[in-house]
Amino acid sequence: MKKNFGRRKFLVYGSAAFGSTLFLKGCANSAPNNTTSPTPSSDTIKVGILHSLSGTMAISETTVVEAEKLAIKEINANGGVLGKQIEAVVEDGASDWPTFAEKAQKLIDQDKVVTVFGCWTSASRKAVKDVFESRNHMLWYPVQYEGQECSKNIFYTGAAPNQQIEPAVQWLFDNKGREFFLVGSDYVFPRTANNIIKEQLIAIGGTTVGEDYLPLGNTEVTPIITKIKQALPDGGVIFNSLNGDSNVAFFKQLQGAGMTPEKYPVMSVSIAEEEVRQIGKDFLLGHYAAWNYFQTVDTPTNKKWVEAFKAEYGQDRVTNDPMEAAYLMVYLWKQAVEKAGTADDLEKVRLAAVGQSFDAPGGKVTMFPNHHISKTVRMGQVRDDGLFNIVWATEGPVDPVPWNQFVPATKGFGCDWTDPKKGEKYKMETT
């Protein structure tokens, strides 16, 4: 049964914590030069696409590239941007963080792109962040993340913690249990997310009974399964922030150990429709995921997008949240460029991006001064066709809060790139 949760009440909990040709270029790897400004072209606007097309994260990131390409194809078919076609230069980060940084440098310095759409893991985003900031360039990042960051040079179209992690914890606490075991991949997103969860559980009266991590791509999950059973012998909540191929082994062995979702419900924040399809729905049936978008969102805009994606890539394909966020961010960038009247003056584009709204498949989104977007929050349960039954949702978009309001070190801080006196991190006024 779907529950609606009023925006005001939710924010108390949350704050107290996409005819013409698509041009593609290969992945040549050359040393960057010292010029960082985009070079205007008479007939095309170059953008970069930087995701993992190989390695452990390819299971998730390949589909994000497809969503970005679809958006570009649609825009080009409708006249392009400022009368020019978008030319996409695609690079493979190969699930390797130094490679992400190297490719980001190439896209900016050699290919002269005006923006980059890219990354999935926070490790890859952190690896390229200095590249974009040192060159005063622009990255659009489409995946939910741990927050605790607010960059002038990055636009974040995935969820901040108050738009995914925090409401998921509250929903689990209210409906599934008060004892939590936290499992994640061993890098910045899961560790920071789990710190937020632990602080939130303290605030609401829950308990963290265990916490464990696997190196990204590691499939040796038996020790973690054993620890979960020891810490929760009578059952309890498992909060899962594993990424990539590790999830395949985790859910298969969880089922093999007889740990059913009725007794050990798993809430995942990196498992969506594509991962369910690749892992196998039988291993995930009955478990949960927290996202802002599911393919089952029942709106005309979403139905049109799902039909367009399937027409482009195959009727057996599925859509998911990071794909939707990747699709919509291309359109937000397009709108910002058109408002600025230029794709090459990145400062004008940055300023024009704030306030842009888009009727996305998951609902209306708006870019805030902190370079994050408002998003509707949803909880889904895996059903027997591999899609998600939406069991809970907010009544409308939730404002983004990048600096976490549960963690003592960042409680009370905000971000506003439209005010030079505020910028990356400022102390908000209390009422």
Descriptive keywords:
single chain, 431 residues, alpha/beta, 8-stranded mixed β-sheet, 6-stranded parallel β-sheet, 18 strands, 37% helix, globular, disordered N terminus
How would you describe this structure to a colleague?
By secondary structure, this protein is an alpha/beta fold. It has 13 helices and 18 strands. The strands form four sheets. The chain has an eight-stranded mixed β-sheet with strand order 1-16-15-12-11-10-8-9, with helices on both faces. Strands 2-4-3-5-6-7 form a six-stranded parallel β-sheet, sandwiched between helices. Strand 17 and strand 18 form a beta hairpin. Helix 3 runs parallel beside helix 4, helix 5 packs across helix 6 and helix 12 packs across helix 13. It is globular and about 65 Å long. The N terminus is likely disordered.
Secondary structure topology:
Elements: E1 3-5, H1 7-15, E2 23-25, E3 44-51, H2 58-77, E4 85-92, H3 97-110, E5 116-118, H4 122-134, E6 139-141, E7 154-156, H5 165-175, E8 179-185, H6 188-204, E9 207-214, H7 222-231, E10 237-241, H8 246-256, E11 266-268, H9 273-279, H10 281-284, E12 288-291, H11 300-313, H12 321-340, H13 346-353, E13 357-360, E14 363-366, E15 378-382, E16 388-394, E17 413-416, E18 423-427
Parallel strand pairs: 1-16, 2-4, 3-4, 3-5, 5-6, 6-7, 8-9, 8-10, 10-11, 11-12
Antiparallel strand pairs: 12-15, 13-14, 15-16, 17-18
